[in-house]
From TrEMBL:
Location within or outside the cell: Cell inner membrane
An example Gene Ontology CC term for this record: plasma membrane
Classification lineage: Bacteria, Pseudomonadati, Pseudomonadota, Betaproteobacteria, Burkholderiales
Family to which the UniProt record says this protein belongs: Belongs to the glycosyltransferase 9 family.
Encoding gene (name): waaC
EC number, UniProt record: 2.4.99.23
CDD domains: GT9_LPS_heptosyltransferase
Any one GO molecular function term: ADP-heptose-lipopolysaccharide heptosyltransferase activity
Organism the protein comes from: Paraburkholderia ginsengisoli
Name this protein carries in UniProt: Lipopolysaccharide heptosyltransferase 1
Catalytic activity: an alpha-Kdo-(2->4)-alpha-Kdo-(2->6)-lipid A + ADP-L-glycero-beta-D-manno-heptose = an L-alpha-D-Hep-(1->5)-[alpha-Kdo-(2->4)]-alpha-Kdo-(2->6)-lipid A + ADP + H(+)
Amino acid sequence: MKRVLIVKVTSLGDIVQALPVVADIKRAFPGVQVDWAADEAFAELVHWSESVDRVLCAPLRRFKKARRWSDFKAIWASIAELRAYRYDFIIDIHGVYKSAIIAFLARSSRRIGYQSQDLGERGAAFAYTGRFGPRPQGNAWHGMRISAGEALGYEVEGPPLYNLRLPEPASPPFASDSAPVAAFFHATSKDDKKWPVDHWVEVGGELVGRGFRVVLPWGSAGERAEAEQIAARVPGATVLPKMSVTEIAQMIDACALVVGTDTGFVHLAHALQKRTVMIFVATSPSHCGVEAPNRSTSIGDGHSVPPVSAALAAIDYVHGTAQELAAQPHKAVA
């Protein structure tokens, strides 16, 4: 086995949680080269992985929205890069048309994808010469590791390894002598995944009382307005300025605690080994949640709004007690 291509195109949280597949492959086949194909919007995240050898990307999402000639040319150029090497295996752990097309265009006689009932778009099946076994029950992230292992003939061992190394920030996100920072990722891609503002305010007030400083990132005007509502009622809370994906990742890495809904940046916090609490309102924690003993946990049943008491209990769990966490100096990135 010399070279393998992983195809996982979007989105941020899904790509984060797929990264341990690379470490699994490299453990099973020492010396193998593992490349990764992703949408340009998420390529920087894959570049942070110390396990991925080559990142292939194209502005697929941007072209779909704007249909610009420059983006089409970039996509066309990316095909030549995609075909620069012949792969022993192509593993499509996305399972939609765009990932299947990438798998089909790449050079390999062995292209593995999901069974038809497990595909996000059933027409993607045209690209595959082989199929994974039935998608495993339970956590989707572990399921990706199992599927890749089935395709390449190895057993999955141990906890997931993300092997992320962020670029150094121009300056530390927070002053080294400030209180430990708790980041609230209150924003979601869908309204039914939101946790009530009053709940965020109550948890924020409790954490401030325990010695934390609360910060609130945002990505749109509506998210900023909601962040300002929360900050106005939590003493000392800060609404952060508009930040890039890299800047948000560096901010997360400087935090002592991350609390948020089922969103990509909270998955990233877990991958960066931060103390993380993920709140589920309308999606399944057993399928999409994060868990690591005494470090990360998920709350909610996916059908109702978790109470504040559940969030506070989870915060206590991820580091013994939140008081102990507040007593520790937070990481100020140099």
